[in-house]
Amino acid sequence: MSLLSLWNAAKLYRSVFLMTGGSLVWALGVVLCCVGVGGLENGLARTPPMGWLAWQRFRCNTDCVNDPHNCISESLFMQMSDILEHEGYRDLGYNMISLDDCWMARHRDAQGRLQPDPHRFPSGIKALGDYMHKRGLKFGIYEDYGNYTCAGYPGILGHLQTDAETFAEWGVDYVKLDGCYSLPSDMDRGESLAVHYCPAK
Ligand SMILES: *[C@@H]1O[C@H](CO)[C@@H](O)[C@H](O)[C@H]1NC(C)=O
What we know:
Elements: H1 3-9, E1 14-20, E2 23-31, E3 51-53, H2 55-58, H3 74-86, E4 96-98, H4 125-134, E5 138-144, H5 160-169, E6 174-178, H6 184-197
Parallel strand pairs: 3-4, 4-5, 5-6
Antiparallel strand pairs: 1-2
Helix pairs in contact: 1-5, 3-4
């Protein structure tokens, strides 16, 4: 599978955030990956992304030992998936659940792939995405266009293709690509790369 179709498979949108002094500042808002020029109708992002993102409420709480109901773990995202479904949000169009920072293990695996924290996501990310898809929800994930994420987990630089392939294998629909440890000039390059990886359709 080519990189182009992988990015397509992941239906990669690009949203860039800057983390400054702990406050979240929208840098570019949400930019459609495959839209280089206005007016392209490819079926993607006809509305803004709507759903639930973990960060503002749960931040980087990884302490599942002392705070099991509020930590970043697969059970938190399964619970939120159930709520979007059963409380009617999904049917109103809020149909996306998105992981934010701190889902990863501290290091890539021996093949250089991202891996989830094994204690907090014991079933693996593919299984979590399947759980969402079975409920008619889209599955969003988080990475950072730098050497590290804001919380110091592995960033995407040097691993763009591997991570695109991994996300596609996991059935990811959406990627929040953050801007920590990234220079504005790098972000510009990242944008052209993302557009480059998108298929002409
Ligand atoms: C990322 O790491 C590489 C290799 O150490 C380095 O050359 C590069 O400048 C770093 N990029 C940023 C944005 O810090």
